[in-house]
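INFO worker-7 received task bundle
INFO bundle size: 2
INFO processing item 0
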Amino acid sequence: MHEADILAAVRKSKFRFLPAIAEQYRVSDVSLRAAFRRPQLRAERVLSKALGIPLHELWPERWSSNGERLVRRGLRRAA
């Protein structure tokens, strides 16, 4: 999903804003924002859980449909 699509999903959710998700799940809102730019394991999982959208739908380039992580801290796994 594109960053704008994820932010739209946040705004349509019960949380409405990233800081509300950050507070509920005790994670920094800065790390939630960083997840849009680079892999952030915990932030990605928090956003997925809060929005009820599977990780592979939010970040198909980072996660496989079986839940396996494809990207690790800036390193791409060879296909």
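INFO item 0 finished
INFO processing item 1
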Amino acid sequence: MRWPRESLSLAGRSGSNPDPGACSALYRILYVCNAYLNIGNYTFGGDAKEMEIKSSAEITRILKEKWDKSKDKEEWRVLTGRNPKGRHDMFISSPERTWQLKIEQTGSNEAIGFGLEVGKIDDEIKKLMGIGAPVPFGLISPQKKPDLAIIMAGIQQYSSDSTYTLCKEYISEEQAKLDDKLDLEIERMSSDPISRRRYKEQKERESKSYL
């Protein structure tokens, strides 16, 4: 069995009770063979190489390479929040650089996403990366090579205010490009009746959760 087309799963955003004093940190980034792991059908967007926007598989592959070379793995951080469009912004930082993934749920266990490298980390970004509620997370990104995926896991900070500040004050122009890529992928996905129905049902669930 092969992994689904480029995919990513985001788990542990809510419903968990971590140590309130826990610090946001990545515990591991590793390759795994799908013969040893059973995952749902989480589907993420296709290729997006222009304007430095990349697919989720490409971003996680870059993160894996940086992680393997890092001598300060305890300094890596993850921050996630939800923006006014209902999409999730995930920021991952090493001691030197920061990356972003912009994600939209398209079904109960399906999503699409794209990302980019934000740039060098400074004191203000480092401060924002530490603000929020500590929540466990897991991220699975199948790669182009059959039967391989990259898994990231650890404790993230969850704060929509912090991610909104990062998006608007540091990389506002890139947000429109990421949203355009997501919009195009959703439009392409909507040509399939089943995917279109799942997306509609997901939007209905989201609207009810805010009533």
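INFO item 1 finished
INFO post-check item 1: The longest strand covers residues 97-107.
INFO post-check item 1: Residues 9-204 form one domain.
INFO worker-7 idle
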